[in-house]
Specification:
Blueprint (H helix, E strand, L loop, with lengths): L1 H10 L3 H17 L6 H17 L11 E5 L6 E7 L2 E4 L19
Antiparallel strand pairs: 1-2, 2-3
Helix pairs in contact: 2-3
Length: 108
């Protein structure tokens, strides 16, 4: 449970996530009939995120789109990117295959 909250907290430190969440909440409110100025909402949110980045509270760096994984083809650590829901090696294009668990079931 703690890992879940840490994951959510880490994601909420990215301004792009905050802007997306606020945008979706604004769209939901408009759908429900609440009258809000969406441009004003997004501008205010962007300003607040900018201030929080300046203060060091939010991460101002763009998240890396690549992850280092062991390539299925070469067996070496290579940069992988998410394409159509699968991690793909940037060097050779091989789809990442997670290693099998090496635990054995012993019946006794």
């Amino acid at each position: 449970m703690t890992d879940f909250f840490n994951s959510v907290f880490t994601r909420l430190k990215k301004p792009s996530i905050i802007l997306t969440v606020v945008s979706q909440i604004g769209a939901l409110l408009i759908l429900c009939g609440v009258r809000i100025d969406e441009n004003l909402l997004m501008t205010a949110t962007a300003m607040i995120c900018s201030i929080l980045c300046t203060l060091g509270i939010l991460n101002s760096t763009a998240p890396a789109d690549e992850t280092m994984l062991v390539c299925s083809e070469s067996g070496e650590p290579k940069a992988h990117v998410m394409i159509a829901g699968q991690m793909v090696c940037k060097n050779c294009g091989a789809v990442y295959v997670a290693p099998e668990d090496e635990e054995t079931d012993e019946k006794g």
